[in-house]
Amino acid sequence: MARFLVRRLAVMVGMLFAISLVTFLLFIVALPGGNPAGMLAGRLATPAEVHLISVHYGFDKPIWVQYFRTMEHIFDGTSYSYQSGFNVLSEIEAGLPTTLSLALGAGVIWFLTSIVVGTLAAIKAGRYTDRVLTVLSMIGVSMPVFFLGAILIYYAGYKASLIPISGYVPLSNPADWLWHLIAPWFTLSVLFIGIYSRILRSTILDTINEDFVRTARAKGLSQRQVLLRHILRNSLVPIVSLWGLDLAQVIGGGAILTESVYSLHGVGYLAYQSVQHFDTVTLLSIVMLTAFCVVLLGAIVEVLYAFLDPRIRLQ
């Protein structure tokens, strides 16, 4: 296990370096106009302000100096959005609780619901229940997030006053926090439930025919024990992998549409505003946050593999 953790840590550092380098080249070096400082400063900046930004980020020095100085400012909290007028790291930290609340809550919902729906569809494969769940899953996959959110806001919010229309309440007020996130959680989860449940159904149907399942039945285990201990446990491996990557992507700003529809000022909403203003410093910081979340959760998922599937060993 120790060797695996050391090796995985080295891979994480290497991946983050590669991602940061490619992102830097795309967002800074490859910018049109040949002057990154001018793009960072915005159209209304004076020549003196452009010069100060160029010196601050080292754009008047070799490219390797530019890279390390830019990364230094991103990670030490001194990166500043000249177009929007805020400290980038402080703005991300301010929006992170909202995004984490949305992502973790929705992640738990779509993971657990997918297990129930996928398992039930596999058990009832070919029957009426399976057909109904298949249709519902396809509807969920096909339903755009912004459309579902708008429908919920209009009918459940304006018309029936069952849910808050928009806004976020901190966790310090648990009841209001939960009440304001029910609709966003549902909106964000529907798509993933449709995808995950179909994948789990197919995986369970394939696993049923494995030799170790027939052996477990031959030992006299009940159908429930075979399903929970052997079939479902082994079938969850691809689902856990997808869940880790999707959750990391949502934390890193992947819930742009959900946060925009419900006016949740999280990292996704910040990314949306940054794209609108072509705020490269903020976008670069959000990309690095996404990369860190993906790499970290990817490592955690690999550790979970060994628990779910005894055939996998971490060395």
Fold blueprint:
Elements: H1 2-29, H2 36-41, H3 47-57, H4 63-75, E1 80-81, E2 86-87, H5 88-123, H6 128-142, H7 145-159, H8 174-207, H9 211-218, H10 223-254, H11 256-261, H12 267-277, H13 280-308
Antiparallel strand pairs: 1-2
Q: Can you offer a commentary on this structure?
A:
With 315 residues, the chain is mostly helical. It has 2 domains: 19-76, no CATH class; 94-308, Orthogonal Bundle (MetI-like fold), CATH 1.10.3720. 77% of the residues lie in helices and 1% in strands. The chain has 13 helices and 2 strands, in the order H-H-H-H-E-E-H-H-H-H-H-H-H-H-H. The protein has helices at 2-29, 36-41, 47-57, 63-75, 88-123, 128-142, 145-159, 174-207, 211-218, 223-254, 256-261, 267-277, 280-308; strands spanning 80-81, 86-87. The protein has a two-stranded antiparallel sheet with strand order 1-2. Helix 9 runs antiparallel to helix 10 (223-254) and helix 10 (223-254) packs parallel to helix 12 (267-277). The relative contact order is 0.13. The mean pLDDT is 83.
CATH superfamily of the largest domain: MetI-like
Q: How many beta strands in the DSSP annotation? A: 2
End-to-end span in angstroms?
6 Å
Helix/strand class: mainly alpha
Portion of residues within helices: over 70%
Brief account:
The protein has 315 residues and is mainly α. 77% of the residues lie in helices and 1% in strands.
